[in-house]
Structure formats: structure tokens, C-alpha cells
TrEMBL record:
Chain segments annotated as transmembrane: 33-52, 64-81, 88-114, 120-136, 148-168
Name of the protein in its database record: histidine kinase
Annotated GO MF terms: ATP binding; phosphorelay sensor kinase activity; protein dimerization activity
Ranges of residues in domain Signal transduction histidine kinase subgroup 3 dimerisation and phosphoacceptor: 202-267
Pfam families xrefs: DUF7134, HATPase_c, HisKA_3
Keyword annotations of the record: ATP-binding, Coiled coil, Kinase, Membrane, Nucleotide-binding, Phosphoprotein, Transferase, Transmembrane, Transmembrane helix, Two-component regulatory system
Top-rank EC class of the record's enzyme: transferase
Length: 405
């Protein structure tokens, strides 16, 4: 399993309606300190206004004023725990503000924090409780400067305001988290697609390696077998076969170096970079097969092979290469005909056929993967490939590829 797939399978530690900051943080950030200090000062300012109103009432005893100040200060200090225990702080401050007007500001901040850090259900329950007790505080400790109805309505509106504001902030944070999660998933999916494309490219390179090296190694096998079964051959023929073996081994190494160069990471040096085969180099392939002792006839009816698209020419070359390799394996000594025709707008066709060999032989083992790879290569190029035995026991490979006008 790759690193990307492992990260994709990791379960989320948060529930669907939770945010990353809902469970608190081990350490406050600079932003957390700024927000907490601002919330503390707002609650303290609200409490000071309430304390000034209470102090302006001449009927208020000094002991009650001192108690209000201490309770209000404790309520404001309790806000520092609102991130870790938002439900407990909100419930406690709501109960304290029932009889203590100075704690009303801290209670509103606690409700706002509850709406930001907790889902809707606990917010609805505690908010409903705060609305129920909103008229109780002005009933127990009425404000001389306002009526009971006005105090109750203002208290309920403030509770609704902070709860609504908190839920809006939470909804925005959820939206941001959702967008970030989608971005991460899109990035992960892109990485998975890139890895899949890389894997498919490596499979294509493996097929390329099979097509290239099978051709070279078959030449080595044929000539090595000739040297083995004809040790009394003339010196000139032995030298010629040895030269073909040497050249085929050299070409195989060059092809292998080319494929390995494709697998190198970007930025690495790539020595021995050889040009890709095209339709023009088809004559050289046929000459190489003839030098190995095959009887190959090439009928190239393309007026200007150099004008053929590079990808199409390379596909034709690989089809011919694999077909000649199979002919050497399964029909040694039989003549092989290669016909290429077509032009711009008409497409390009290649046909390789050979009759059955006249004499029995011991074929080189093969798995048939080469023809499968050729079919896939032709399909990827936008064409088609057919292959099969002939009635006389021979074999034919025929492909048609596009050539835009």
C-alpha cells in the first residue's frame, strides 16, 4: 500500500458535526489569546455597566454591591475555561445570571462560545433554558430604570442574538473545513490517478521491453543454435553469425538502456538516448532480419514514409518487429511478406504473412503476450489489429492505423 492510499484510508477522528477546535486545544495560539482577552474585556465591560446601574440605586446595600462585584469577577474569570468545557460554563453562568445581573455579560459570552463549539442539539437545550430564565432575573432584581417587560424582552433578544451569531460562525467554520476536506480529497484523488497513470505507463514500458528484446534475443537464439548444430561450418559463416550475435546483443543493450532511461527520475542524466523507430527505419528492420537468414519481402507502397506521424510510424515498426520475431520462432525458413500501404486521410495498413514451414522444427517457446501487446498498442493508436492462422497453415497479422489528412 502506498503512502497516499494509506492516508486515504485513515479514519477521521471527528464526528460529522464536529469541528477541529470543538474538543479544545492543548495550548492556546496567539489568535486564541486575543479572542479570549477580547471576550473577557467585553464581559467585564458589560458587568461594569450593570454594577454602575446597581450602585446608582440608593436602596442597594453595600454588602450586596461587594458580593455582586466578586461574583461578576468570578464569572468573567470562568470564561477562560469555556474552550475546554463550553457546556458546563454556559450552564453555570446561566444559573448565576439568574440572580446576578453583573454576570449577564459573561453568560452571553458563554452562550456564544457554546454555539460556536457545540452542535445544534445542546445549544438548543441550553439556549431554551436561557430564554426561560430571562424574565426571572428582572423579576428577582428589577432595574429601577426600566420596566419588567422591557428588561425581559431585551434579555431574550440578547440571548437569541448571541446564539444566532455563534451558530453563524460555526456554520462558516464548517463550510471552510468542508472545503478544505474536499481540496485534500481532490489532491489525494489526483495523486492516486497519477500513481495509476504511472503504473499503466510502466506496464506499457514492460510491453515495449518485450517487443524490443524479444526481437533481439530471437536473433541471438537463431544464430547461436546455428553455431551449435553446425560446428563444421565454414569460417566465413561462423564469423558472420558471430557478428550478427554481437550486433544483436549490442542493439538489445541499447534498447534496454533506452527503456531504463524512460524510467529514470526527472533531472537524472540519460546516456545513450537513441531516436525512436519510425516508418522510415522499417527498411533497416527488414535488412536486419534478412541478415539473420530470413527470407523477407518488403512491399512499401507509402509514397513518402517520412510524412507519416511519428506515433503511427513507431506502431507500424513495432508490429512488423513482433511479427518477424514470431515468424522466426514459429515458422523458421518460411518466406515472410511485409506489405505497408496508405497515405494521409486514407490511414495506414500493414500486413505480415507467412506460410507454414516445409520442414518440422523445434519452435522457440513463447507465451503469446506479444500479439496481445500489439493489439493494445494498435487500439491505443486509434486503429485495430487482426491476427490468425491461414487455411494453408500459415499466419497473418494485419493492422489498420489512422493517418489524418
Amino acid at each position: 500500500m502506498t503512502r497516499t492510499e494509506y492516508r486515504w484510508l485513515l479514519p477521521s477522528a471527528l464526528a460529522d458535526d464536529e469541528l477541529p477546535g470543538d474538543r479544545g486545544r492543548s495550548r492556546r495560539t496567539v489568535r486564541d489569546w486575543a479572542v479570549d482577552i477580547t471576550a473577557f474585556l467585553c464581559a467585564a465591560g458589560f458587568g461594569m455597566l450593570a454594577l454602575v446601574t446597581i450602585e446608582a440605586d440608593p436602596t442597594t446595600p453595600d454588602g450586596v454591591l461587594v458580593a455582586d462585584s466578586l461574583v461578576g469577577a468570578a464569572a468573567c474569570c470562568g470564561l477562560w475555561a469555556r474552550r475546554r468545557w463550553p457546556v458546563g460554563v454556559a450552564v453555570t453562568l446561566t444559573a448565576v445570571s439568574l440572580v446576578e445581573p453583573v454576570a449577564a455579560g459573561a453568560m452571553l459570552v458563554g452562550l456564544f462560545s457554546l454555539a460556536v463549539h457545540r452542535p445544534f442539539r445542546p445549544v438548543a437545550f441550553i439556549g431554551a433554558g436561557a430564554l426561560v430564565v430571562a424574565p426571572v432575573q428582572p423579576m428577582l432584581r428589577p432595574d429601577p430604570g426600566s420596566s419588567f417587560l422591557a428588561s425581559s424582552v431585551i434579555g431574550a433578544l440578547l440571548v437569541l442574538l448571541v446564539l444566532s451569531w455563534g451558530m453563524v460562525v460555526r456554520s462558516r467554520r464548517q463550510l471552510v473545513v468542508s472545503l478544505r476536506e474536499r481540496a485534500r480529497r481532490a489532491e489525494t484523488e489526483a495523486e492516486l490517478r497519477a500513481e495509476q497513470a504511472q503504473r499503466l505507463a510502466r506496464e506499457a514500458i514492460a510491453r515495449e521491453m518485450h517487443d524490443v528484446l524479444a526481437h533481439r534475443l530471437t536473433l541471438l537464439s537463431v544464430h547461436a543454435g546455428a553455431l551449435e548444430f553446425r560446428p563444421d561450418a565454414p569460417t566465413a559463416e561462423v564469423a558472420r553469425a558471430a557478428g550478427v550475435i554481437r550486433d544483436s546483443a549490442h542493439e538489445a543493450l541499447q534498447d534496454l538502456r533506452e527503456i531504463i532511461g524512460v524510467l529514470r527520475a526527472p533531472g537524472e542524466s540519460e546516456d545513450g538516448n537513441r531516436p525512436q523507430p519510425t516508418l522510415v527505419t522499417l527498411d533497416a528492420l527488414v535488412d536486419e532480419s534478412r541478415s539473420a537468414g530470413m527470407r523477407v519481402t518488403l512491399d512499401n507502397r507509402v509514397a513518402d514514409p517520412a510524412r507519416a506521424p511519428a506515433a503511427t510510424g513507431r506502431t507500424v515498426y513495432r508490429i512488423a518487429q513482433e511479427a518477424l520475431t514470431n515468424a522466426r520462432k514459429h515458422a523458421p525458413g518460411a518466406p515472410v511478406g511485409v506489405t505497408v500501404a496508405g497515405g494521409p486521410g486514407d490511414g495506414l495498413t500493414i500486413e505480415v504473412d507467412n506460410p507454414a514451414p516445409d520442414e518440422p522444427f523445434d519452435p522457440v517457446p513463447g507465451s503469446g503476450q506479444g500479439l496481445i501487446g500489439l493489439t493494445e498498442r494498435a487500439n491505443l493508436a486509434g486503429g485495430s489489429l487482426d491476427h490468425g492462422p491461414r487455411p494453408d497453415g500459415g499466419f497473418t497479422v494485419r493492422a489498420r492505423l489512422p493517418w489524418p489528412a
